[in-house]
Amino acid sequence: MLMEADLPNDVEALRALVLEQARELDALKVFQAEIERLKAIIEALQRHRFGRRSEQLDPDQFELALEEVETALADAQHAVAKASKASADRPRKANRGSLPAHLERIEQIVDVEEVDGVRACPCCGGALHQIGEDVAERLDVVPTTFRVLVTRRPRYGCRSCEGAIVQVPAPARIVEGGIPTEALIAQVLVAKYADHMPLYRQAQIYARQGIQLDRSTLADWVGRAAWYLRPLRDHILERLRRSERLFADETTAPVLDPGRGRTKTGQLWAYARDDRPWGGEDPPMVAYVYAADRKGERAEAHLGDFAGILQVDGFGGYAALAKRRQQVSLAFCWAHVRRKFYELADSSPVATEVLRRIAMLYAIEDEVRGTSAEQRRAVRAERARVIVDDLHVFLEARLRQVSAKSKLRA
User: What's the pTM?
Assistant: First the structure.
């Protein structure tokens, strides 16, 4: 902000200052309008993300669009700060989060320069003594660096008999005679399956550092790694089958259909266990199994001789499984039940009331999470059962009043 003492006495200089201020004000108006436009786009995208399923964008497309808009918004806000010359007065609000404690800390000291071993006061020249310090942390990254591991295996001969050559056998490799280490193969797998980075793109990344690897070569590594990992997958499935409780779900997955020039729809089944919130001692684990279709016998083949509680959604294949195998008891998921009513809540008072009652059940579960099984059972019998019984009566009564064509009845 200009003070009166800062204003020039010369009329021409004053005119130039006013014109400069006017240009800055015009620029600010343009940037502010752009910021408001971008914020409106973000709000619209958020409505798509959390709106009804029919209005939702594909999650990947949503994140990509939001990323571009937020980048443009940051650019416009930075331009406003520079144009107004007031960035120091109005610090930008940002949710940076805290940096994890396990990360390596490399300290960089920015200190007052010493002269003859003494830090002198700029006013009187006296010796300075430290009274505090400011500490700021920034997140840094070391770009991926490739290196070559050279394995040397000396050979030894005997001068006495000259009949023996001694050498330590070569360490086993996933790709015999190949160049990748286990760490590199793990990186390829994580990039492909966790980060959704196709192999041809990974090959392009390696090529930028002068490493020429064909996509087919990377595919061969992935196939060999899958062969080695198969026993681990089978072991996890076997451990899961011995559990008292399991969660099962399935989702569609687009799969290449060679020879037809398009993709087909496969199914990815997940079987999980995590009893930590309920004080269980078994370690959490999950197994994924691919199948070409969603037939009910798929789950039966995956679960083997499992006997216990199977938490599922409303897929009919699980109900058929429970009928064929009496040792399997189904526990249906409140989250899946709630989802259908949530989609109708804006237009149906009945759906809104159902959501309110389900929320009461969620609140009870929050209270008992982490307690013993006996405590949870007692609280549920005393408080949750009443809510569920009342909800059943409420729905039975409303069912007779709802049209057969209503989405609520479906």
Answer: 0.66
- The one-digit pLDDT tens for each residue of the chain (410 residues) are 555 556 666 777 777 777 777 776 666 666 666 667 667 666 666 655 555 544 444 555 556 555 666 666 666 666 666 666 544 445 555 555 588 999 999 999 999 998 888 899 988 888 999 999 999 999 999 888 899 999 999 999 988 887 789 999 999 999 888 999 999 999 999 999 899 899 999 999 999 989 999 999 999 999 999 999 999 999 999 999 999 999 999 988 888 777 777 888 999 999 999 988 777 788 999 999 988 888 888 888 999 899 999 999 888 888 888 988 889 999 988 888 888 888 888 888 888 999 999 999 999 999 988 888 889 899 999 999 999 999 999 998 888 887 777 777 66
Q: Which two tokens stand for residue 181?
A: 């280490």
DSSP string computed for 148-188: -PPP----EE-TTT---EE-PPPPP-SSTT-S--HHHHHHH
For 115, residues 6+ apart whose C-beta sits below 8 A from its C-beta are none
Quote the tokens at residue 323. 């009928």
